[in-house]
Design brief:
heterodimer, A: about 575 residues, mainly alpha, Cytochrome C Oxidase, Chain A, 17 helices, globular, disordered N terminus, B: about 190 residues, Four Helix Bundle (Hemerythrin (Met), subunit A), about 0% strand, elongated
Chain lengths: ~575, ~190
């Protein structure tokens, strides 16, 4: 009997599992259920986002009111400031964007969207979260060791990161590096699971082009991560040896090369942008199809542009290093590749806009966030073209222009992308609807202050404000009232944005217990997760679905209903 | 609570068993780790002609012997796979332990080499050549140890006739470890 036949045989005899009700520990803590692991990743990510947001609040207050007492923290010392900005960056990327966008959504959605009962390796999945949790504990404990948390910037360039007489965090630095390395291992394990599950465990009848874009995006992101992180793991081991044992891989005095780290870091770091971008793009694709009741424009083109972006992302890394002493001829090459990579991404955005064109658009909260993603990410993308040109970058490098550009890409990805997904999939996750009005209040309270924070920072960057300055009062050129008022404005906008997260938290918690019952398919969507009960039980489907058509058959002419679920025979 | 594998694990839309597929993806992620390390070493080596002098202190004979040992152990794991496919459990068990034996010989030779070099004053801190040498071959050695441990665990299953496809999967991994050595041997032992 071949593999396929035996699978068919087991599945035809498959009835609803009659597991005995698991106890608290095996249900919530040591669960192998993909949905529970997804939740664990999501809640850990939210907690880390609160920590990262708190850090941003503290150092923004220091920048607006240098040396003054910050409510809820105290006086920010230079050492604390370094540690805050370093860990804010690292936390938001490695412990918020990654776990929420890839791990939480990937774990929760992949088996549901491809119509199977779990990941192919549930125990490896659990191990992945446990390693991730250890990395979180290591990172948080690094704040409390002598010298405090690592203060060598999230990019950890040597010699600043390699020698404790420079970064002044002898224990924080190696712990930070260890935490990052553990986090990478966790996501490698998770990624292997995602890719294998999607390749092998799809529902009967689901062909390559019947896979929802969301799943494609998570899989391609996992592939990118897998192919780019290796050199940095090797590099991190080398840096750890430099820090703790005294080897000299990155020390020029003994024949080492500090720029080597920059190459290894950005060879990973640039694909990493796309690793977190793609799942957000996937979520937005699902949402705009459902809320404009239209077929996704150019499904295959979106897929091909994603592949093109993925491949190109391995050839752009040195655009982070234009002033690191690389050969100007190489700078030209990387300028060209960087400008080329904007083409597939722009094409993707055009496909999304074309999907909206002529649709019957319904502005529910997830749709608002999806539209905001397109608009805000566009600003991030366009300012990226300035920075990708080596001539411009020599002036802009390490200024707040870079910082604002970066936040205009990562904020839409990590925060708006997350809110798009959570408002859209919340009914599936918890079986209840979130409150629309509060959702809209949260939306405007997030998007308007976001722009008020970072638009002034573009202006400050163009005025020459350097990124890593503790107190601008020490620089008379930068301490003028004009510039300083912009800083204060940005800080208060950040405070307002953080305050507007409170309605979200309340809405989220209250809706879990008190929201309106959602039913199976509240949004009238086509993809398979909406055919499972909400919330899906252990094993997901009463009867494993069979797929008959692509995922985006909305408003098909001649049909009574304007949607056509993937699993309906006709 | 006893763990029951989900139906997903048994599915095979690609007609490739899930375990084999996952093993290949593990190999892919390992290739980039070793790839990064080896490329760093090569870039340094091109800029430091003086490293040839240091490289001449590594023992080509020991390296060549170890290459032979690893290649032979790879043959054994192939034979173990063949025996497992034919459900000849005793033979498969024996060949797995021959492979583990090969790994042991490799590690013994390696530790004699390292002892020799360290006693001649070439340590991790002598210069970057030696740093790369110890880190790269050390990382490879850890992979050898990991492979041996996993093989020992698999051999228990083989004895009971359970999880026989795992012999093939560990074979893929063992070949990968072998091939990494085929890159490290010329880079650290032959090029002088």
């Amino acid at each position: 009997m071949t593999m396929a036949e035996s699978t068919a045989a087991t599945e035809s005899s498959h009835e609803v599992h009659h597991h005995k009700e698991p106890d608290f520990w095996s249900k919530y803590v040591f669960s192998t259920d993909h949905k529970m692991i997804g939740m664990q990743y999501m809640f850990t990510g939210i907690v880390m986002a609160l920590i990262g947001g708190y850090m941003a609040y503290v150092f923004r207050m220091q920048l607006a009111y240098p040396g003054e007492h910050v409510p809820g923290f105290g006086t920010v010392t230079p050492l604390a400031y370094n540690s805050l900005i370093t860990n804010h960056g690292a936390i938001m990327i490695f412990w918020v964007a990654m776990p929420i966008l890839i791990a939480a959504l990937g774990n929760f959605l992949i088996p549901l969207m491809i119509g199977c009962d779990d990941m192919v390796f549930p125990r490896i999945n659990r191990l992945s979260y446990q390693i991730f949790l250890i990395s979180v504990i290591v990172l948080i404990s690094s704040f409390f060791v002598p010298g405090g948390g690592f203060g060598g910037a999230w990019t950890a360039y040597p010699p600043l990161s390699a020698q404790s007489q420079y970064n002044l965090t002898p224990f924080g630095a190696p712990l930070w590096l260890l935490a990052v390395a553990l986090e990478f291992v966790a996501f490698l394990l998770g990624g292997i699971n995602f890719i294998t599950t999607t390749m092998n465990a799809r529902a009967k009848g689901m062909k390559m082009y019947d896979i929802p874009i969301m799943v494609w995006m998570i899989v391609i992101a996992s592939l990118l991560f897998m192919a780019s992180v290796g050199p940095l793991i090797a590099g991190a081991v080398m840096l750890l040896f430099d820090q703790t044992l005294g080897t000299t891989f990155y020390n020029p005095e003994n024949g080492g090369d500090p720029v080597l780290w920059q190459h290894l870091f950005w060879f990973f770091g640039h694909p990493e942008v796309y690793v977190v971008l793609l799942p957000a793009m996937g979520a937005v694709a699902e949402v705009i199809c459902v809320f404009s009741r239209k077929k996704l424009f150019a499904y295959k083109t979106i897929l091909y542009t994603t592949f093109a972006t993925g491949i190109l992302s391995f050839f752009v890394w040195a655009h982070h290093q234009f002033i690191a002493g690389i050969d100007p001829r190489m700078a030209h090459v990387f300028t060209v590749t960087t400008v080329i990579i904007s083409i597939p991404i722009a094409e993707m955005l055009f496909c999304y806009i074309a999907t909206l064109f002529g649709g019957s658009i319904e502005l529910r909260t997830p749709m608002l966030f999806a539209l905001a993603f397109l608009a805000e990410f566009l600003i991030g993308g366009v300012t990226g073209i300035y920075l990708g040109s080596s001539g411009m970058d020599i002036y802009f490098h390490d200024t707040y222009f870079v910082l604002a550009h970066f936040h205009y890409t990562f904020f839409p990805i990590a925060i708006i992308g997350f809110f798009t997904s959570i408002y859209y999939w919340f009914p599936k996750m918890f079986g209840r609807m979130m409150n629309e009005t509060w959702g809209k209040i949260h939306f405007w309270g997030t998007i308007i202050p976001f722009n008020c924070i970072f638009l002034p920072l573009f202006v400050l960057g163009m005025a020459g404000q350097h990124r890593r300055i503790y107190n601008f009062k020490n620089f008379p050129d930068l301490a003028t009232p004009d510039l300083h008022n912009l800083r204060i404005f940005a800080t208060w906008s950040a405070v307002v944005m953080l305050v507007f997260q409170i309605p979200f938290m309340i809405n989220f918690m209250v809706s879990i217990f008190r929201g309106k019952k959602a039913g199976k398919n509240p949004w009238k969507a086509n993809t398979l997760e909406w055919t499972a009960p909400s919330p899906p039980p252990h094993g997901n489907f009463k009867e494993l679905p069979v797929v008959y058509r692509p995922p985006y058959e909305y408003s098909v002419p001649g049909r009574e209903k304007d949607y056509w679920p993937q699993n309906e025979p006709n | 609570m006893a763990f029951t594998a989900p139906l997903a694990t048994a599915r095979s839309a690609t007609d490739i068993p899930t375990g084999r597929l996952a093993t290949w993806w593990v190999v892919v992620s390992e290739i980039v780790i070793f790839g990064g390390l080896v490329v760093c070493y090569i870039m340094f080596r091109l800029h430091h002609t003086d490293w040839a002098e240091h490289a001449s202190h590594t023992s080509t004979t020991a390296g060549a012997f170890n290459t032979f040992v690893l290649l032979t152990s790879s043959l054994f794991i192939v034979l173990a796979h063949q025996a497992a496919s034919a459900r000849d459990l005793k033979k498969a068990f024996r060949y797995i332990w021959f492979t583990i034996g090969g790994g042991c010989i490799f590690l013994v030779v390696k530790s004699i080499e390292w002892t020799n070099e360290i006693s001649h004053g070439y340590t991790l801190f002598t210069n970057n050549f030696w740093s790369f040498y110890y880190v790269t071959t050390g990382l490879h050695g850890l992979h050898v140890i990991a492979g041996m441990v996993i093989m020992a665990i698999i051999s228990i299953g083989v004895k009971k006739g359970e999880h026989l496809p795992r012999v093939e999967y560990i074979g893929i991994y063992w070949h990968f470890v072998d091939i990494v050595w085929l890159f490290l041997f010329p880079l650290f032992y032959i090029a002088k």
